[in-house]
Prior knowledge:
The chain is an alpha+beta fold. The chain has one domain. Helices cover 16% and strands 54% of the residues.
Amino acid sequence: xxxxxxxxxxxxxxxxxxxxxxxxxxxxxxxxxxxxxxxxxxxxxxxxxxxxxxxx
Length: 56
């Protein structure tokens, strides 16, 4: 598909998912603060991305 960048969003209440994404090479590139409401509390959406080639 010749993609240069792939991104995802993970809610801050899911630290195990974030840990997995970091392990496979994604990096946190931003946040949407208090974006997601769940069980009476607001949570951040963490934006993560991975690039085809890292800048050298």
